[in-house]
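Why should sequence recovery work at all? Because a backbone constrains its sequence more than one might expect. Tight turns favour small or flexible residues, buried strands favour hydrophobic ones, and helices have their own preferences. The token representation captures these environments compactly. In the example below, the structure is given first.
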């Protein structure tokens, strides 16, 4: 008999959010409108940034961010190998090169000590990815960026919210990109946000997110009425709908409560798994606050491997995942750039040992006891 399955993730959507989404559906205005604007204003305030642009994904936000800093063909962007496809593919959109960097053993974030040796004359930007919501070493990264005149575009897909030395992620780089994908800390189903303190970047991203249409034209030619627009660049279609934004507004109001629930669940996993031999549990360095988007642990046991742990959990009805298959191991990047596993020793080991346990706001203590029990038995 298979026990009740435990999902990898399940979003917690309030009744108030559902009612508001319904209100949008009945309103007659479904696409970008006042809800998107309200979500932007609230999100900018939440991460203490001047400007926020609501988009249909974090991938779109990253793409627009690289466009806003003027990334050109043949240039390079430095990013960690331990990330999702999106972080690198947006660099490829420009026929620029994603230069992959190894990660730290403790946080699995980009190893700031290995950044400088990878810089070339063509490097334009560093893209830190805050893995699982644990902030990267932003002091060190900003210092390198200043020294070499590089932009910092943050992949903060996991960071609603996360803090580095008391300041929210969203206040460090030139542009910071958040995700509201279905299993992220807060969700709009699909969605993202691009944050910046720079008005020019914000306006460029806003224009390019909607076909490169200029709204200034409405002011310049207002005699012609509101139907007039000018195409000033070939843009994209990346705007967020009001249907999604209505959900986002509620999720953002709940973000701190959802975070508290994740933190409690993490503390419980820590207690249940502490002292089990052959495990390296995820951490939170003292100077940061982790969003705890992921409970990604490493199986270091010599006799029981990561794959066996995943199999045992699967057999027990527990869904798991692995974050991430490093980019340098994927055929596209391996073949195109000749990345060698030997250049990423820490990421390789981490990857082979990694398993991410289910973690979501409504997870019950009994479910966590079950998950931990399977792992304890396997490693006993
Ligand atoms: C989810 C994710 C993205 C992409 O987010 P979307 O909103 O799905 O485009 C980018 N980077 C990382 C690290 C992610 O986990």
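From this structural description, the recovered sequence reads:
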């Amino acid at each position: 008999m298979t026990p009740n399955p435990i999902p990898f993730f399940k979003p917690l959507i309030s009744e108030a959010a559902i009612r508001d989404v319904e209100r949008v559906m009945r309103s007659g205005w479904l696409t970008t409108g006042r809800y998107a604007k309200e979500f932007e204003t609230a999100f900018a305030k939440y991460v203490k940034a001047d400007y926020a642009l609501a988009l249909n994904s974090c991938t779109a936000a990253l793409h627009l961010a690289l466009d806003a800093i003027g990334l050109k063909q043949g240039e390079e962007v430095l990013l960690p190998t331990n990330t999702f496809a999106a972080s690198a593919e947006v660099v490829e959109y420009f026929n620029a090169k994603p230069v992959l960097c190894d990660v730290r053993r403790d946080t699995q974030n980009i190893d700031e000590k290995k950044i400088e040796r990878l810089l070339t004359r063509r490097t334009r930007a560093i893209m830190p990815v805050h893995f699982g919501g644990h902030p990267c070493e932003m002091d060190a990264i900003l210092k390198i960026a200043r020294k070499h005149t590089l932009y910092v575009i943050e992949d903060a897909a996991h960071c609603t919210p996360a803090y580095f030395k008391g300041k929210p992620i969203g206040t460090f780089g030139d542009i910071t990109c958040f995700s509201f994908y279905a299993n992220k800390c807060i969700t709009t189903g699909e969605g993202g946000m691009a944050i910046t303190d720079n008005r020019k970047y914000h306006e460029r991203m806003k224009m390019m997110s909607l076909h490169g249409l200029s709204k200034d034209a409405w002011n310049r030619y207002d005699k012609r009425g509101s139907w007039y627009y000018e195409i000033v660049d070939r843009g994209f279609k990346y705007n967020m709908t009001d249907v999604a934004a209505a959900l986002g507004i509620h999720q953002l109001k709940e973000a701190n409560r959802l975070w508290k629930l994740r933190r409690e669940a993490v503390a419980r996993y820590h207690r249940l798994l502490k002292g089990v031999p052959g495990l390296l549990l995820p951490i939170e360095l003292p100077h940061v606050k982790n969003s705890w988007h992921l409970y990604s642990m490493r199986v270091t046991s010599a006799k029981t491997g990561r794959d066996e742990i995943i199999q045992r959990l699967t057999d027990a009805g527990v869904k798991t995942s692995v974050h991430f298959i490093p980019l340098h191991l994927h055929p596209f990047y391996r073949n195109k750039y000749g990345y060698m596993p030997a250049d990423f020793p820490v990421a390789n080991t981490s990857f082979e040992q990694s398993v991410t346990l289910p973690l979501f706001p409504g997870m019950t203590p009994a479910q966590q006891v079950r998950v931990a029990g399977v792992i304890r038995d396997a490693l006993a």
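A few observations help interpret the result. The chain has a mean pLDDT of 96.
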